[in-house]
Amino acid sequence: MDEQLDVLRSALTGRYDIERLLGTGGMALVYLARDIKHERPVAIKTLRPEVASSIGAERFLQEIRLTARLNHPHVLSLYDSGVADGILYYVMPFVDGPSLGQRLAKEKQLPIAEAVRLGREVAQALGHAHKHGLIHRDIKPDNILLSEGHALVADFGISRAVSAAGGERLTQTGTSIGTPAYMSPEQAAGDPDIDSRADVYSLGCVLYETLVGQIPFPAPTLQAMMARHTLEKVSSPSVMRPSVTPALEAVVTKCMAKNPVDRFKDGAQLAETLALIESGETSSSSIAVTGARGSAAWPTMHRVRRIAMGVAGAVVVGSLAAWSFGFFDQTGTSDRQMSTIAVLPFENIGAEEDEYFAAGLSAELTIVLSGIKGLRVAGHRSTRTLRDANADITEIGRTLGVASVLEGDVRKIGNDIRVSARLVNVEDGAQLWSNHFDRTVDDVFAVQAEIAQSLVAELRGELVAESSSPEVAAATTDPMAYDKYLWGQYNLDRQTQAGLTDAVMNFSMSIGFDSGFAGAYAGLAEAQLAIVNLGVVATPEESLVSAAQAASTALRLNPRLAGPRVVLGDVKAFSYNWDGAEGEYVRALENAPEDPLVRERYARLLVARGRLDAALVHARAAVQSDALSTSAHRALLQVHRNLDDPEAAIESGRKILALDPTDAATWLDFGLLFLSQGRADDAMNAFEGYAERRAVPDASLFGPFVTASIAHAEQGTSGTLSPALIELMQAEPIMLAVFHQLLGDTDGALSRLERALRNRHPRLGTVTTRPELRSLIDVPRYRAILADIGLLPS
Fold it and tell me: How far apart are CA 401 and CA 325, in angstroms?
């Protein structure tokens, strides 16, 4: 070692004044030196002779030059490199501070906020390198230097150069690239094709250690340690340190997934998530399901989903063909206003992984066109279903009751994008208008505005009598914000738990890029509310607060948005603020008078407030605009039930089941409808259908309830609910009250409602939409409940 120091000093005389040895590692020695020309301290690393001989000087220097391209505040720069009398060396700034490894040796654990910040800084450095195609391969605490408390990632040079120049030969000499305590399973297995996700795994191990105070997989031998990395699931950080939040734990777990496809795709995505955790804007559920979109598995899984949707769509179209939409047939084709349009999901004719872009763009265009007064736009989910079923233009127009259909395609190649759009007349299939728009990724967010403006210019005076100019309510000028926004729209459209949690993450990231992007806040609000409606969160209050905050921010940025108004209306309805909710729906209708979601939500509110004629108008309009929406048909079913029109309600229910045969709530509604008509066998069949879809083992428990309910209706004989049925319906206190009342157990019904009131159950407001409870209106206890929630009729 002293001999090498003497050789190095002699060879670098006049350039560097080498003072002393700073430290040693598995592949290199580090010396403190002074850069004579620039008068600054530097660190000189020299490869050990056995490593240098395995690599070769020319290849090493060729590869290490690539790392000189890295220029990032959290990457330790490369000043110089070369060969000094046979010794391979490179020069870096001298950092007068400890490494993270030295600090952990003294303190074991870091404060959580500091651990997250340092993790984000390292992830940002990795993201910069990954963007340039460089993988570190040896992220560990000793390679993270601390300068004035901030992270500097060292040794990109040696890890990159050693791996690229002589990795295979080094393995044969027993020298490994990477450190077993932080090595990904694919590195441990000797996979030559590792990518950025190997670095993500290693950083996850570092995060774990900073939080817990020990490496994730301690073992007596290196072989045993690498085996644990490959085979065992990491222990929960929160067990070792309870103050670790669920969201942060989800990040560490996701980083350390055994399969690379289940990790963050690169340092940039991990850095974005850690930044959200620092700001408190993310949750464990939104992290756990966020996949690496760039992974090889994504196109395959996406293809499977598309095929499945196509099959389901074909069934739906077949069912729709058998329906007779009275409000369509009565108007007739000749009476239809030409100011009706459906926007089909644009076809992606580029790479399969860009489908989110085409789908999100057409969803956003639907939002833009829906804000144009004088133009009715069919619901986006209906058009998506018909497109997936490969229905032709005439069939789509007839089913949705529109006169024209806008279709198009998107081709994205590198930074260039071409969007082609065509407006087709449903009556004869003639093309009314077409155009194409060539843009780059950096200004693609303007495309939907240009399409809308061109379209309205064409339609005005011909198809639209009195249209307003389109407004892109959700404008941004940041391409990254818009890209995340399109991802959010795509995932929101899935309406599944995984899709919604992905959407929350996407919209949050979009806001991170552009905090003034109203559309991203609107999307975040809708996704948070949809998660509540899906019933998959343990504390819906938190999601409701988050939804309201996001909606309010969106409206502050753009008061003309309709979607956030709907969210605020729903949140206020959950808290029994009926006047406030109605005010929001009315203002939403002013901005988007034909929006089916606004109409549907307003119809539900009007049913709760007993204004059934107005509710019928809005529910029918919602179904007309979004004919394939189960929630729109459910709103219409509620209206018909409260209007004492069971046959019309049953017809709405049949349409729901044609769209979604697994819809358990509709089978429950059918059971109650048949009970009201004294049809015991039909009621029992319906309840069995409900039990089957709820995976209830013994549907026969409804038998005594059906018999006793009809006996009470016919003879006034009272009964009680079985404990098994009560247990089954425990999560539905309003429905339990209905069941008690159908058996003549008024005290049981009121007790259920009073308990729901004490718990401030968010769906207690639906109590007035249940005709079975109407007979309680003069009972003082029931009137007290209605008065408390603001629904006592005047």
Answer: 9
